[in-house]
Amino acid sequence: MVDSLYREQILDHYRNPRNKGALDPADYSHEDQNPLCGDEVRIDLRVHDGIVTEVRFDGRGCAISQASASMLTELVEGRPLEEVKAITKDDLLDELGIPVSPARLKCALLGLKCLKAGIYGVKSVHDDEL
Amino acid sequence: METRTTGLATRGIDPLDGAAVRADFPLLAAPPEPGTARVAFLDSAASSQKPAAVIEAMDAFYRRDNANIHRGVYKLSERATAAYEAARHTVADFIGAASARECIFVRNTTEAINLVAQTWGRRELRAGDLAVLTVMEHHSNLVPWQLVAAETGAELAFVRMTPDGRLDLDHLDTLLARGPKLVAFSHVSNALGTIHPAEEITRRAKAAGAAVLIDAAQSVPHVPVNVAALGCDFLALSGHKMLGPLGSGVLWGRFDLLDGLPPFMGGGSMIRRVELSGSTWADVPARFEAGTPAVADAVGLGAAVEYLSALGMDRVRTHERELLAYAVGALAEVPGLRTFGPTDLDQRSGVISFELGDIHPHDVAAILDEEGVAVRAGHHCCQPLMRELGVVATSRASFYVYNDREDVDRLVAALHRANRVFAIG
Fold this sequence. Notes:
The complex is a heterodimer.
Chain A: H1 8-15, E1 28-34, E2 39-48, E3 51-60, H2 63-76, H3 81-85, H4 89-96, H5 102-120
Antiparallel strand pairs in A: 1-2, 2-3
Chain B: H1 18-22, H2 26-29, E1 40-41, H3 52-65, H4 75-94, E2 103-106, H5 109-124, E3 130-134, H6 143-152, E4 155-159, H7 169-176, E5 182-186, H8 198-207, E6 211-215, H9 227-230, E7 234-238, E8 249-253, H10 255-259, E9 271-275, E10 278-281, H11 295-311, H12 313-331, E11 337-340, E12 351-356, H13 361-370, E13 373-374, E14 376-378, H14 383-389, E15 394-398, H15 405-421
Parallel strand pairs in B: 1-13, 3-4, 3-5, 5-6, 6-7
Antiparallel strand pairs in B: 2-8, 7-8, 9-10, 11-12, 12-15, 14-15
C-alpha cells in the first residue's frame, strides 16, 4: 500500500487526544481556524518560572489538525518557554513523521500557529514564520 | 461520432461509453506513473479534464494562427480574429442565443456575474431596492451582490431551501411579492447537484417584474440549456467545467439589455473614440471585452463545445443520470455514509455530497487520494449552504462524460478502506 498519512500514531492521537481541554485562567491562550477546511484549535498554556507547566488544547477538525495539536502539547509540556518559542514547523513535521502534502500543511501547522500567536500576543502567525 | 441504433437508442437516447470517451482525454487515458492505477477523477464539478481535441485546437492556434485580434490587417491577425469570432458563434448556438453578439468572453462564471453586478447592478439597484438570491448560491453569485448592496444600499433576501436541498418555491413567491429588481440563482447546485426548476423560477420572477440572472456554471456542462427556453436576462458559464480551458467563460445577456449598459473595465478594444477629455464606447460585445482577450482559450472553448455537441447533451445527461443511480445504490452499502441532496434523481445532476461517519471530509478525501480516487472535500464555496445543512464541510464526488461504473466501484472500495482506517464498520 502507499505511504499513508494515517499511521497508527496519528490515529491514536486523534482518537485519544492528549491534554485536551482548557486552562482557566491561562497565561497564554490563542485560538485560530483554518479557513480552507474549517479546522479549529485553541491552545492554553500556564508558565511558571519560565517553564511551561501545563498545556491544554481544544478544537475540532480533521485528524491531521487534531492529532498534530495533541502531539504538540506533549512536545511543549515541561519545557522552558524559550525552547518552546524556538520550535519550528520542521520540528513538528518531524514529530508527525508523515508525508504532509502542501494541501494538508495548514491542517498540520494549525496548533503551532496558535501556540506561537498566543506566546507572542499577536493576532496570527504566517506559515512562513513558523 | 458513430451512431448506434441498438439498446437505449430505441428509447431515443444512445448511452455513452465512459471508457471509450476516456480514451479521448490524455490525462485520464494513461496512469500518472508507470505501474500505478489511472486516476478515478470524480471532481469534474470543480473543473473538468480536457479532451485531445481541445488541447490540439489551442496548440494549433498558437502554432498557426497566433496574433492579436481586431487590429492587424495582415492575414495572421485576420485568421486569429476569425477563429475567436467563430468560437463565439459556436458557444452562442450551443446555448440558443439569438445572436453571437449576446455572448461576452470572460475568464469564468465569477467574472461574468461581477460584470453584471458592476454594470447592471450598480446602475439599476438603489437604496431600498430588493435583490433576491438563494441560500444555496456559490460564493460567486453571492459576494458580488453583497459588494453592490453595500455600495447602493439595496437589500438582499435569500430563498430558503428544503431539508433535501431543493429551493422552497413558496418562499420565492413570498419574496417576489415584495417586487424585487433582480432574481439571481444557480441552475444546478455545485454542492448538492440539485437541478432547480429554472424555467419556472424565471417565469415567476419575470411575472413579478424582476430581471433574472442564472448561474449556469454547473448546468451548461451537464444538461441541455437554452437561454430562449429559460427566458432569463443573463446567464453565466465557465468553460473549464465543460471540457474547455481554465480561464475561459462566457456571459450571455439579452442584446437590448447589454446594449444599454455602461462598460465594465476600460481600456483597448472597448472604445469607439477616445479624447483626453473623455471617451465613447464600442458596440456590444466589444464594450465588455477590454484589452487583448484570451483568444486561444476562446478557441479551446469552441472546440470543447463542438466535442460536447458531437456527444449530444441529451446523451451526456442520460449517462450521468445512470451513473448517479448506480452510485447512489452502491454507496448505500457503505456503513456510516450519509448523502445530502434530492432523493429524486431527476432533480439531481451527477453530484453526490456525503459524510462518512464522523470522519472529517478532508481525511476522507485524503484516504481516497491514496487510492487514486479524486474527490473534493470542503465547503464547496457554499459556506451559507453548509450552515443550512448543519455541517462544516462535505465530501463530494461528481461525474462527467469520461466516468463509468469502474470509477464508482473504486470510490466505494476506497470508502470501505477509510472506514477500516478509522475503525468504523
